[in-house]
Every structure is written in structure tokens, then in C-alpha cells.
Amino acid sequence: MSTRGRSYRYVGPVELKAAVRPGSGGCPISSAADFDGWIAERSAAELTEPFTFVVGTDGVLRLAPRRSEHVACAGGDMVLSAGEISFMREADRWAVGEVSNQSTGYCPDVASWPAVAHALDDVELGRPSGFTHEVVFRRCPNCQEHNIVREDDFVCVFCGSDLPETWNVDPAV
Q1: What is the per-residue pLDDT for 4?
Q2: What does pTM read for this prediction?
């Protein structure tokens, strides 16, 4: 277990996790040199869209194309955070343009930001002070469905039950 926060199990469709092959995870980015090499291989078209990211329990950022499943990017493993991230040139260096915790496979809490911040700091990327788009996930205690809470409306979209104020997506955590 990492000292960088809670870890999250994959809670999405089982068939997506079953399709993950060993060694098929996203590209690990553990240094500025790793990022420079990775970003240099991206096309201008790729850079117009956000990328899929996870922060592994080892604290390392892993990146994959946007339409990649988070569970594949993580190699099927637990994560400290997951979401989407975009990059932009800021003066003479790369920086994070936008970053969210939008991953319906892991449903990480917004409190997973410190793990993302550490991983970005480790590779010397300029970054915002928090998620630029926060997604609030909750599991309905009544019907067990996963929900995205919008506009602070903590009501299940599937059955109308009240949702808890605190993160509860993974009952095993």
C-alpha cells in the first residue's frame, strides 16, 4: 500500500478487466525524460484530445490514448487515481492543461488529487492546484448502481434513493 492515499479497485464491467493482458498497461512516466520521450511521439491530432491516465499504487503516472480503458492503462491493478488529462505548452515547457478524475471503471474520489499532484511533480510538469473538472461518484445503498452526482444532487438516478455525502463506491474499501 502506498503512503500517497487510498487505493481504488476496478469496479467497472468485469469483461473489460478480463480483456486486460499482462504487460499491456499504459506507458509509465516516472521522470521528466520519460515524459519528454513520450510526448515527442504524439501527433498534433493526439494532442488536441485528453489522454487516459492512472496513478499506480507505486505513485507512477501511466498514460494511454484517450479511448483506452482505465483498467487496461493500469494493467488491471489497483490505482491511487484515474481520469483524463491534457497537456499544453507553457513558455518553454509542457504543463497540464486540464485534468479530471473521470473514470467510471475506478470511480476515484476527488480526494485522490494529492496522488496525481505527486506523480506530476515527480515528472516536473506544471499543473493546476486541483482537478480542473471534479467528478463525484457514489454507489446507491439501495440499488447498488454507480452514480455521478451532478450539481450537488445526491439522489440516485436509477431508483431515486438518497446517496451518501461521502465516497462509498467500493464496498470492500
Answers
A1: 64
A2: 0.94
